[in-house]
Queue: 3 jobs
Job 1
Amino acid sequence: MKSISKFYSSLLMLCFMLACSAPSAFVYQRSGKVVCQKYEQDVIHLRAEASAETTAKAISFAERNAIENLLFKGIPASNQEKPLVANETEAMRQNPEYFNNLINKEDYQRFVMKSEIIENVAEQKAHFVKQLISIDLNAFRTDLEQNKIVRKFGL
Amino acid sequence: MKNIFFLFFLSAFCAAPAFSQSETSPAGAAATIQPTIMAIPFVAQGQSIRAGFEKNELVRIAITKVKEGFDNRGVNTIDFRAKLKQVNNNEVLTDEQKSSLKDEVINLSGADIYVEVEANKKTSKTGNSVSVIMSAFDAVSGESLANKVATSPKFHTDNFEKLVEKAVESEIENLLNTIQAKFDDIRKNGRTMTLQVGVSADADFDMDMETPDGNLLADAVENWVADHAYKGYYHVQGSTENKIVFDIVKIPLKDDRGRNFRVSKFAALFRNYIKDSGLQASRTIQGNNVVITLIEPNK
């Protein structure tokens, strides 16, 4: 009996230690904090905000958020008001590998022409960034078409 | 004790990755039908489309930029100027035929979609700008596919050509995306046609005539349309004793053999049904509008 209670005590201790040591404060979550700064026919310049425990991670979150908004939500007052992918759930279900590479493995970097910090506020536990990201729309759309994620223009 | 298990269970869930799309199924993609598009100048009723194009430099630039936008997306475009010249070479159109020149060019071009382009200057003390109106239509049915108004930023400049470029560039992608959204809807829900079924003026029967199975003729017609409309989708605009008007009847893009399903095929199927019912019918097809007139067999 004593050994069982010792086992559970150690297990509880282990869980407690894991909970204390894991920096779980900042997990990526998509937000609507993406606005169009300016646009040309084939390039869109987006301003995205994000926070994380490091500046590098906050930049990554901001870039991912910009890409996901462009893909699945569309950007108001821009040349991409409609999302590039019309049905997120269906596209994700049919092409898990493509989206895993594109989003989780940051394959989207191929379409990021420029990414620069326009504001960086570093506090003790959080780094907040405003990032200006220029995306090559034409190349991005062509990649989606070639991988049959979206259809080419037409019926 | 239960709390310990709960904590352990919870910690295991917290460690799971946020992104998890495990279901796999290959993307099935049907071949895309590439429509041909032609940008044309907007002209008011009675005005010459040729004059609208040749005398307005802003419109010419706007048309060129619209065409360029379509070309960038890999869309097949038709050059309006070339088609206009072709009509000119035919030398069959006189001044009295001005109003039909637009239809002539559209028909001759073979374009599936045409985009009407209108460009207007706006001058003010705070700067000059240009607005461009772009309206896309299905060339066969005349159905509107997309409309966009693009306005350039204000600049203290007289270079209106550059302002036109800026305006078109700002909205051409949205115009294309809206047309594509319309295409996606057509692929999913079918094309829209209208159907009007009426009895001829000298007929001895009307739509309230009882059919052998006890239904009224109007009800029998509606039942047939309900059975043959794509996904059963139709809408009756109105029905009288002389005619029944369907303002929406959905038809598929392709038939069972993968060939284009034309409006005329739907009309032919309906005529066969009418013949089998012991009546005769004449039909008129204009674009996506079908008018069927029911007549007695001996007349």
Note: The mean pLDDT of chain B is 83.
Job 2
Amino acid sequence: MSRAEAPGTAVSDAAVSDVPVRGAVPQGAPRLNPLWSFGLFRSELGITFRRWRTLALLGVLLAVPVLVGIAVKIETRDGSSASGGGDGPAFLAQITNNGLFLVFTALAATLPFFLPMAVGVVAGDSLAGEANAGTLRYLLVAPAGRTRLLLTKYATVLTFCLAATLVVAVSALAVGALLFPLGELTTISGTRIGFGEGLVRALLIALVVAASLVGVAALGLFVSTLTNSGIAAMATTVGLLITVQILDQIPQLHAIQPYLFSHYWLSFADLVRDPVYWDDLLRNLGLQALYGAVFGSAAWARFAAKDITA
Amino acid sequence: MEEPSAAEERPAVPREAGPAVPTAATGPGAAPAHDAGDGEGEETGAVIATRALTKRYRGGQLAVDGLDLTVPAGSVFGFLGPNGSGKTTTIRMLMGLIEPTSGTAHVLGRPMPRAGRAVLPHVGALIEGPALYGFLSGRDNLLRYDAADPTADPRTRRARVGAALDRVGLTAAAGKKARAYSLGMKQRLGLAAALLQPRRLLVLDEPTNGLDPQGMREIRTLVRELASEGTTVFLSSHLLDEIEQVCTHVAVMAGGRLLTQGPVAALAAGARGRLVVTTPDVADAARILKEQGVDDVLPAEDRGTVTAAPPKGELAELNAALVTAGVRVRGFAVERASLEEAFVALTGEGFDVAG
């Protein structure tokens, strides 16, 4: 992106080499093009999405809607209701009427664990993995700049949150369209909305689900600044995720539950109401922003002052 | 955005009251560094200057203790010391990876770690061996490191990466995944990363580690080449003859303290050389030398030499005395002490013993 847009004349090498060698003071600042800063973000995206591990995580997420779709199709071959046996994820019963509901079902099925686990792996490894491989010290003497590197890492993890959610949503939409009829859909409130409107709601839901992962991402990034072992950071983040999910299930702890980052996750279903019920949705987004701010700051405070000995 | 702020220019105040050595370099009156000519590097000609630099790790271990290091511009500076003597901690402090406990470090005339974003683009570094992304090719590794530098022009990135690969002889293996590289190839790739831009200072920590003799020669040639282009090279190594071959200056550390620093020749001269007489008549030669009042005479029958402390008198007279006595003198010389002898004299212990 920055390559084509970088304005000005080519001065890169001259800016460095015309400085006299003995007068060893750098003349003010090196010549900077602000757009060049984004080169690191591009590189970071490339590194993240070319990794076999990332692709495997996305592959699992891609497979979930396929499995759910096929299972529902097989279960309902004889015309019985999909949720006949028990209570599966939200919207399971409606899939046979409208394939679009597979998007909602797949997101409801992956949000509690698969999605945040994938985010925890990527976020936990982001800095600790570089420290583990020793590449962190070379990035810092490049010099990437600690704040810039941290921001780049966080931006990359957030991009992964969005990509992972979209993988689930798009896969679910494709499977839903292949296996089930599409068309008008009935909201939770009982009203009917057009398919186009339904698609918009589905996209909104995907965005809200992606935003629901902001807290886990910040938490994982913070944990990643604490250790030089990528595996330890990943395990800790996923462990915290499971702990929080368990705490959220214990009735005696209802006093603290509104502060757990996963508490309002399933509120995205309120987007399928007519009119949309915003209260819990906004609480969720506010909580995610809070987690992002708190753990983002903690990560910065830790990383900016850390002795890099790996 | 990189314009240095006023605060950035203030030399760091030692947090512990270290022995403040008020030199022109670190005095509070030092002019703002963007007045390029008045910076401390200009005054002292030093590319690296540390004052009372100290690092105590959280465990209480004193890794570097009051280091006053001065690396002159244009030098090839050898940094020696037994394992665990604080060399790597010093290098990490110079590169802004570790915050000093007290004291100051100036690199290219600017304080580290605060001025890191202005200084480090001019510095190429190989620290404690190469570190690579195993799943990327050699070329992609370099593209990655270059992208991390906000002063690196993306339009020239591929060309510069290609030139760096060429310079270390890796062009043929550039497309191979780095995890398939041998240690020597990784070392070369690490060097290439340090050479992505024209640098004014190269910090090379054990650059020939893992290289075969041919590779070592190439690296030495490369270091000389870079030095002749005006780059200051700061080289830590365990290989004393390597330091002796390429370095103009040397510093020796042990136990976190600086034992000595200065031109290589001066250090080697500080250690006493040896008089070496080559002759088939070893016993006679040894006897004559003792008669002439020479100290510390050591006959070595098997090698056909007699070594002794260098005499204070005229060497030619000593030689004449030998010849007159019928000793067949085939060689007669005072050999300069090697750096290794000087080093052992300083550290007083085996080279690989932690200090």
Note: The two ends of chain B are 44 Å apart (CA to CA).
Job 3
Amino acid sequence: MKRFQATDLIYPALFGISVLVLWQLIVKGFSVPAVLLPAPSDIWAKLITSLPILWVDFVQTVIRAVIPGWIIGSLSGFLVAILCDRIPFLRRGLLPLGNLVAALPIVGVAPILVMWFGFDWPSKAAMVVVMTFFPMLVNAVAGLQASGHLERDLMQSYGASWWQTLVKLRLPAAMPFIFNALKINSTLAMIGAIVAEFFGTPIVGMGFRISTEVGRLGLDMVWAEIAVAALTGSTFYGLLVALERVVTFWHPSYRR
Amino acid sequence: MKTEAAAVPSLPARGEGQAFPVAVICLVILVVWYIAAIPMNWVVTESKIAAAGGGAADILYYSWNEQRPVIPAPHQIMMELWNAVFMVKPWAVKSLLYHGWVTLSSTLLGFVLGSLFGIALAIAIVHSTFLSKSLMPWIVASQTIPILAIAPMVIVVLGSLGFTGLLPKSLISMYLCFFPVTIGMVKGLTSPDPMQLDLMRTYNASASDVLWKLRFPSSVPFLFTSLKVAVAIALTGAIVGELPTGAVAGIGARLLQGSYYGQTVQIWAALFMGSFLAAGLVWLVGVAERIVLKRMGARP
């Protein structure tokens, strides 16, 4: 593992704290109206007092839509990637299309999915599935090609079957790519679920709360939701990074 | 992909040729789409089919030509696209070219601003250990915030400050697309190996000389890879930026209106327009990449 220095933690913490202090000072010092930019202290106060609402929104958006969608989307992308690997014709046909689709503004599918799956969480989960599928497909296919010819020849000379080669050589070699896709997907999943809520939702959910509170100019509540979203996103990302370190301990970027 | 290969005939086809498999897969998708349209549209078409007699021809006709289908048949989308692009004046409200242009202009402004900001940030990070240690974690963290979700607030707040129209949407595009540029450029600017950096030192080159004559040229391939990602998400940002504010023009506004009034075909047409824009922009960056790399003497 890379040596972890105290400065790796202190510098960013100092930077973050100074930004917060500066924010507080500017807002209070110039008495910026709260409808433009609430001070961090106001946001914190709102956050503490409206925990039940925030929790309900969190359950609706993250637990019901983001996490199941992220798992289904990533898993199906991965399975199709393995299928592509087995059938070269499929790979040559599907990969250029996958690359193309990964660049498209997929969030635009949201209104269609809301029409198909209704206002509640299934349409949001479906949105997350659609958004996370292609990055995983493209990355996993690239990852499965990442093992070198020498290693593959070695497996061949051992008389290893396709499955054995896959499990013992090519999947481990693909892990950095797969984790890359999982990390991209963790952000995309949050975006997908929240954007899908703009197109119609039951009266609960982070996207719903943000858009209605903006309409009522309750910006402290909006920032409280943002804080929850940011914390969720960073935790999600951080967990993936930690897991990646454990799984791909052999990778050059983690060697001492 | 086909057009890319055609544009540079000197490049050998990658792999064993992709055109045929891609065409087959596209054909399969089309066939599945047409077949799936029958059961999916059944809810809306059932009574009409029964009224018309219920024969196989009726089923096909009504499933593929429904005015407000659950899923429109591909030819309906193409017709709508054709009508909205070529059959109306480009500046009319019904024209998708007009809406596409509105979205494209804020995309491009955001893309340019975001890329410049991203490059500047990367240059600062490469030259300062303090910045790289303090800023990098926050840059990564900034992307875990679902900015698209707070886009409405950004637009409303900027609107109340007097900024309306192009700029707020562009700022969202900019926020989204600086990230891949910064990450890619930090990698690119640090890609010269120590030998080359040592050589520059023996020449007594200043930091700006090293930057312009060594670091920047060697970062160009990284730059273009990031720019391709950046331009695609800049477009996404611009579209989402149009959603919450009740914008009257732009691809996002078309999507929203379509979903309010149940105009499925209109949604799909807007979606296709956005996809063509995205593919076109990525392709243009690819062309620029090839021209620049060629002038820099790179060999394919």
Note: Chain B has two domains: 2-71, 96-295.
